[in-house]
Amino acid sequence: MLERRAAKRSQVDDADAIASIAKALAHPARVKIIAFLVSRPGCIGGDIVDEVGLAQSTVSEHLRILKASGLVVGAIERPRICYSLDPSILAPLQALIGRVAAHGGPRDAPCWPSSDGCLPKGTDQ
Amino acid sequence: MLERRAAKRSQVDDADAIASIAKALAHPARVKIIAFLVSRPGCIGGDIVDEVGLAQSTVSEHLRILKASGLVVGAIERPRICYSLDPSILAPLQALIGRVAAHGGPRDAPCWPSSDGCLPKGTDQ
DNA sequence: TCGTTATATCGTCCATCGACGATTTTCGAT
DNA sequence: ATCGAAAATCGTCGATGGACGATATAACGA
């Protein structure tokens, strides 16, 4: 019980972290950037601009957001900058998704609010 | 190999879909809701309101967003509504994360730019 | 029927996001 | 020392998001 509470607490505490990670992925341009970086290790910024099809300043802003999230790290290797990924940042989000996936398919039996399955609002009764 | 490329292309084409899924998870309240639904199969809306600590109307709005994303499905079982999860929606996002994770840490990415693009570090510049 | 309870919707306010062009910065190259 | 290319930053604008209270809706029980 205490463990469950603790686990749940950590989950809740992770909510902000998970949300911020998801936020970093919550835009098609950023998803494209990530996919591009996965497919081409050590690619160059200019290529990313071509890939996503937005203005250079806009792409730079998306890269800034991704770097702020920690998912993308910019390795400055003049004359150009090579970006790379830090997958470890994704762990909490991946864990949540894993839990959901393990949770089962589209819920078989929703619940009955009767005494057993669904806990009625308030305390257990 | 052809399959890999096809999968990769579908990933990129799915950028919008992945982004919209991520968007559904891009708010702490919604993450809490998901975590809560995972931990309590067939829970009740009122409990969710207590859990996230926001106004009922705000929680309802977050639930609407989650339902619109397809991740949460509301099974109407009066007198109350029991929500449940559809994990299959997460597949594209999970796949992307898996690809990033398989990509390796940030250590191997930096490279030397050259006229042919980025060459792995260690290559003669 | 009427009242209670749970959920959804509406209207509004303020904050943040996303896009762009213009500008600045920062290097290597000439 | 200056030029040029690549990236970051700035300023602005319209769009969207998130919060809330108030209100509407729906089903059950008395």
What's this model, at a glance?
With 125 residues, chain A is mostly helical. Helices cover 55% and strands 10% of the residues of chain A. Chain A has a single domain, classed as Arc Repressor Mutant, subunit A (Orthogonal Bundle), CATH 1.10.10.
How would you portray this structure in words?
- The structure is a homodimer of 125-residue chains.
- The first copy, chain A, is mainly alpha-helical and 125 residues long.
- Chain A has a single domain (2-96), classed as Winged helix-like DNA-binding domain superfamily/Winged helix DNA-binding domain (Arc Repressor Mutant, subunit A, Orthogonal Bundle), CATH 1.10.10.
- The first copy, chain A, is 55% helix and 10% strand.
- Chain A has helices spanning 2-24, 28-39, 45-52, 56-69, 91-102; strands at 72-77, 80-85.
- Chain A has a two-stranded antiparallel sheet.
- The longest helix of chain A has 23 residues, at 2-24.
- The two termini of chain A are 18 Å apart.
- The model of chain A is unreliable at 107-125 (pLDDT under 50).
- At the A-B interface, helix 1, helix 2, strand 1, strand 2 and helix 5 of A face helix 1, helix 2, helix 3, helix 4 and strand 1 of B.
- Chain A binds a DNA duplex (30 and 30 nucleotides) through residues 27, 29, 44-46, 54-64, 78-81, 121.
